[in-house]
Amino acid sequence: MKITIVGGGPGGLYFSILMKRQDPTHDITVYERNPAGSTYGWGVTYWAGLLDKLRAGDPESAEAIAAASVTWTDGVAIVRDRKTVHRGDAGFGIGRRLMLNLLADRARELGVRVVHEHAVGGPDAPELAGADLVVAADGVNSALREAHADRFGPGLSSGRNPYIWLGTTKVFDSFSFAFKETEHGWIWCYAYGFSGEQSTCVVECGPDTWTGLGLDHMNEADSLRLLEKLFADLLDGEPLIGREHTDGSAQWLTFRTLTNRAWHHGRLVLLGDAAHTTHYSIGAGTTLALEDALVLAAALRSAPTGAALDAALTAYGKRRRAELVPAQSAARYSAQWYENLPRYMRLEPAQMFALLGQRHSPLLPHIPPQLYYRLDRAADQLEPLRRLKRWLGPRLAKAAHGR
Predict the structure, then answer these.
(1) Which residues of the chain have pLDDT under 50?
(2) CB of 79 within 8 A of CB of 179?
(3) Please, are residues 165 and 190 in contact by the beta-carbon 8 Å criterion?
(4) What is the pLDDT of residue 403?
(5) CA-CA distances (angstroms) from residue 239 to 52, 195, 220, 236, 365?
(6) pLDDT tens, 298-308?
(7) Residue 90 is inside which H or E element, if any?
(8) Torsion angle of alpha carbons 232, 233, 238, 240, nearest 10°?
């Protein structure tokens, strides 16, 4: 097959690797509009289950990613000025730029053409001529998808809370949270290491807090200084950093959740953020894009053409939409938990942190936080209560989704 991939993010690059491993005679080109080494964001997170899938898909790139990653098990939260620690499953962090470089190197090693600083103008661009398959891996603002919006049926919804994605020279050895109460309301951040020199720090707050603190009109330098002061105990005096290796300054955004009714049209298929997004607070965006690549490559194992290609792409979209339901549900509840943060801040820090870990539960929004905490502790000891919780949660979620 002749395959053209538009977008050189983790999903697009990994898909090119998988297809070259399946058949070295595939003619594959990846076009990325940004320069090599230029990327938004800092580090990305993933969990051990993803590594197992990557090792099955391409052991060489999986081992390179694992070797370049840092790991943690503890979760730490500072609530006002009190610290609490919870044990958890192992998590991993890796610099996004480093991951892209590793995947691009592996793709080139297998014979993929990876072309940077090359934007593809649209569905009629000459770069797409003659391709048997075009993969739109060009992000949430995908030009290829939007050219056929009537076919894909995209839906976008925006979250309520502003957030900003930053780096810091403070190296965290645990996944860390800090919640600070100001005269204008709560502001909080999540932080995690991704190398021996730097960490990611995502700051979020409600819109009233954002405007009350003046963050809506401050420049980047003044915003960073204010945030460093607010989170001084978390950062241990280390600075926050805006954008690195990209043009412009770090921007406050509101998260946009994207869904699509269909994932392919003719020879054009969506992958990663071009097909779906899930709120950053569950740390699954890169994982889901890589899983898209694995499923799409499996669907195309026989290099189908004509009606067989359409059937393969249909099967890919159907399977991935079904597999995404739990992650999308978890992301929706996670975002809502943070949007309703004051509801939980009257709890003791250890109790609040326990409910932070339960924020994906469809039961939690419907039960007073203190009562939910007690029921959750009791469910750890009583199997009938545990079964009731598992039975009731999905039914409440279905009813709320229907409304």
Answers:
(1) 391, 401-403
(2) yes
(3) no
(4) 46
(5) 35, 16, 13, 9, 36
(6) 999 988 889 99
(7) strand 82-95
(8) -50
